[in-house]
Amino acid sequence: MKVPLSWLKDYVDIQIPIEELAYKMTMAGLEVEEIRYVGLPMADHTDPDFSSGHVRRQETKITGFSWEPDKIVVGAIHEVMPHPNADRLVLCKLDDGDQIHTVLTGALNLFPYKGTGPLETPIKVAYAREGAQIYDGHQPGHVLTRLKRTKIRGVESYSMACSEKELGISDEHEGIIFLEDDAPTGTPLVDYMGDAVLDIAITPNIARNANILGIAREIAAITGHSLRQPSYDILAEGAPIEGRVSVDIPNPEINPRFVLGLIENIEIKPSPYWVQRRLRLAGQRPINNIVDATNYAMLDMGEPLHAFDYDILKKRVGDNAPKIHTRLAQKGEKLTTLDEVERTLDDFTVLVCDESGSLALAGVMGGLESEVTPATKNVLLEGASWNMINTRRTVMSQKLPSEAAYRFSRGVHPAMAKRGVARGLELMRQWSGGIVAQGLVDNYPLPPVDSVVEITPADVKRWLGIALSPEEITRILESLEFKCEITSHDSRFTIHATPPDHRLDIGTGTTGMSDLMEEIARIYGYQNIPETRMADELPPQRGNPTLDIDERVRDILARAGLQEVITYRVTTPEAEARRLTPDTTPSDKPYLRLANPINQERVTMRQSLLASVLEIVERNTRIRERIAIFEIGEIFLASEGGELPDEFPRLVIALTGPRVPPAWQGGDTTPMDFFDLKGILETLLYGLHVDVSYEPGKHPSLHPGKTAHLVAGERRLGTMGELHPEVAAQYDLPETPVLVAKIDMDVLYELVPTRYEIAPVPVYPPVVEDLALVVNDDVPAVQVEFLIRQTGGSTVTDVTLFDVYRGDQLGAGRKSLAYHLTYQSPDKTLTDKDVAKVRYRIVQRLERELGAQLRS
Predict the structure, then answer these.
(1) Rounded distance, CA 571 to CA 421, Å?
(2) Phi/psi of residue 414, each to 5°?
(3) Which of 61, 212, 343, 517 is the most exposed place for a label (fewest CB within 10 A)?
(4) CA 428 to chain centre
(5) CA 153 to chain centre
């Protein structure tokens, strides 16, 4: 939220430097992300007197520039004359307080005064003298320049009347600024309207402060100054409103309060310039005095308002008194909103209606038919309170964020409705010359119940570690407008705190005490709370084996060159169906649907981690050739035993692209294949001390004949292989193979040993020899390796397959497997005779069990 300093000063005195204020606010939970200076002098960060505390505060972004007091002043235009050589330029007689200047300008808003002679009332403007530094109004963005003498179409120009862009107020540059008539000529402009804007991050827990008054209240509490409340008095001189409009609320749970006021005989025109300037600095676009009054009141005190054209409402019901009511929309009902979009409504959407139909989306946006136009003469002003959850659902469904919905969806207390209408009506009266009807229509069927929270100094000491007296606790809470009463019993003091009627966030019981602790800590100052040791006994320390294994998996895969990704856990069934071939029937397990999804692409909890990772591969292969990623995450299946889903942890690995990343020295750029993935899995399982075997398998996402299951004993650990071509065709993927592996982490947790044996480094040399065996083509190489290791026992320390050969000389259905065998003993040097005995046993067993023959 953008907060002009001048607006804050309406309600609280600010006597400390702006950056000091920003630091204090940030420490109290109102993070000031940026300070934009608009004319006011900026702090000199290079000054040696600039304190170290200020240097620390420079995490806040500082922008803007200062107006030079002797160069930029209030000027008075006394006459607007034609330019002798240009129809699109005029010459102005301008008094800057010292002398009369002839100022050349092309400002469109001066053309109505051209050639009319001396002005009866001088036009007060922002005037930049020769040599002044301003923003160039003709350049895009914000480019600083200095005014120099030059000739334009034969007339000398050395100064100018400024637009808002040239002074850094906004990007408006079509016309110059018209100041109020009482602006003192010759006064430095920085003294008259210099300002700064604090850009504050309003987090959900402080949504009550999404207004100037709320921020001022916080500043008053932080700095110890008094808060000046705005006036809610109305000069109402019109006929009573009673009998001219009525309100009915059939469902108070969604609409606890509805307030209406009436102003008649208004004149639609621009708001005063000071109002327009404040709105622009706060990020709002000025429209006209009536709409600006609703926006100003909303930003001022936090109650969104809506203005209806009263005459249009009367015409809708045959010139009778409008009868306003709120109701739920009928499914499929339509309403055209102020943005000129016809919207199809859901049955949970709340509408403001009259007897002829709907008028507005409650708490979000008004309807087009009853909007205020330049022809409007009478305005019915609404202020209400709406169910925050319902407002959020409507915003999400209609994709229609608004300033009103931003506030109502986070909670606005019903007490603010009447104040907001009173404030808005008085502003309309002052800016439009209208007459306010006496009284308000106020239907308030469901006032919230005030909570009273009890807290003691002992509670504060235990929770926050600081010793505060009852009076100090009361002072802090009362600075935030809590009503406090101190009672004592047996020398024990208790503070009974009632939250103010603009707060909806204070709970009861323990929750309410937690809320008060937060308020006390914020205003006392987190930075002032000393570090203390815990007085309570620490809970027993317990290991978390599954977390430890997850971290080991991450470390091993990262060392193997893979990057970890974290994907959304929410998706759609249609998105997940892409991971299966078109002829595969999806699982009939029901998806868990979110009650309040963030968008239409995130409506259910995922049932496949592979689908989530494939989306990342699809997105990233558009910008890079090589992908090597993994994710450890949960899938979610409906539980038979309760409302919460069952969560199952999974690991997914995905590879595609060249084997080696491109580099200036070259490298192997052939695409990664099945065995690259297998090597990564072997590296992972070796690091975890888990033994598995690989068996041919099938999977609906993987290529037939290029798929294998990882098996440990009787348990299947996972599946690996190349993505099925029909699955790849459903994603935007490159032509290179995509290799994926899925690991069941629950099985892996059970297989990882808590401890394992290690052996000392051998001191005796190994004997290495090659052994080539001819076996039937259907004999797996892993079975041959298993028998070699089992028969060789501890003497055979390594077996590596290095060649597979098939040929006519071996005969049909036969193949040759060649292995490197390493023989080594921990307690002696092996002789040729020792090795020959082991080799003989191995060959005999392979011949006996597999029909293997030594290849000559």
Answers:
(1) 43
(2) -55, -25
(3) 61
(4) 36
(5) 52
The C-alpha atoms of residue 805 and residue 665 are separated, in whole angstroms, by 33
Is residue 500 within 8 A of residue 480, CB to CB? The reply is yes
Neighbours of 56 (CB within 10 A): 9
- Read off the DSSP letter of residue 724: P
Give 137-143's long-range contacts (Cβ < 8 A, gap of 24+): 137/163, 137/165, 137/166, 137/173, 138/173, 142/168
- Per-residue CA distances from 173 to 139, 274, 457 (Å): 11, 17, 58
**Strand pairing report for 246-248 and 323-328:** parallel
Distances (CA, A) of 737 to 135, 201, 562, 623: 56, 46, 17, 17
- Record the tokens describing residue 442, joined without a space: 């106020």
Q: Where are the alpha helices (DSSP H) in 134-232?
A: 189-193, 212-223
How far is it, in rounded angstroms, from Cα 616 to Cα 800?
A: 36
Return d(Cα 80, Cα 82) in angstroms, integer: 7
- Cα(40)–Cα(189) distance, rounded to whole angstroms? 10
pLDDT tens for each residue of 690-716? 999 999 999 999 999 999 999 998 899
Cβ-based neighbour number of residue 460 at 10 Å = 25
With tokens 């649907």, the residue in question is: 593
Tokens of 573: 């069934």
Nearest Cα to Cα of residue 311 among 321, 302, 301: 321
Closest-CA residue to 73 (of 184, 196, 166): 184
| H/E element, 489 | strand 483-489
The three-point CA angle 293-299-302 to 5° equals 110
Q: φ and ψ at 71, to 5 degrees?
A: -110, -30
Alpha helices in 282-402 (DSSP H): 289-301, 310-316, 388-398
What is the chain's mean pLDDT, rounded? 93
- Kindly indicate the confidence band of residue 49, based on its pLDDT and cuts at 50, 70 and 90: very low
Residue 743: per-residue pLDDT: 97
Q: Which residues of 812-836 are buried (b: 16+ CB within 10 A; e: fewer)?
A: eebbbbebebbbbbeeeebeeeebe
Name the burial class of residue 136, with classes exposed (0-12), middle (13-18) and buried (19+) by CB atoms within 10 angstroms of its CB.
middle
Pick the closest to residue 629 from 609, 604, 649 (CA basis). 609
The residues that bridge with 102 in the sheet, in sequence order, are 93
Position of tokens 């129809």? 87
Which amino acid makes up residue 641?
Answer: G
Cα-flanking dihedrals φ and ψ of residue 775, to 5°?
-135, 170
Question: Per-residue b/e over 85-124, b at no fewer than 16 CB within 10 Å?
Answer: eeeebbbbbbbbeeeebebbbebeebbebbeeeeeeebbb
Query: What is the reported pTM?
Result: 0.72
CA 651 to CA 631: how far, in whole Å?
6
CA-based R_g, the chain, Å: 39
Question: What six digits make up the tokens of 564?
Answer: 């970890």
Predicted local distance difference test score (pLDDT) of residue 450: 83
Half-sphere exposure of 526 (CA within 13 A, CB side): 11
Phi/psi of residue 523, nearest 5 degrees: -75, -35
Distance CA(127)–CA(293), nearest Å, equals 29
Q: Rounded mean pLDDT of 764-779?
A: 94
Angle between helices 674-688 and 545-559 (to 10 degrees): 140
Q: In 10 A of CB 346, how many CB atoms? A: 17
User: Could you tell me the sign of the dihedral formed by the alpha carbons of 296, 504, 255, 437, in that order?
Assistant: negative
Please write the tens of the pLDDT for every residue from 419-460.
999 999 999 999 999 999 999 999 999 999 888 999 999 999
pLDDT at 82: 93
Euclidean distance between CA atoms 769 and 490, whole angstroms = 91
Contact status, residue 440 vs residue 418, Cβ threshold 8 Å: yes
303 and 419 Cβ atoms separated by less than 8 Å: yes
Map residue 457 onto helix, strand or coil: helix
Q: Residue 760: what residue type? A: P
Tell me, rounded to whole angstroms, the distance of Cα 702 from its chain centroid: 37
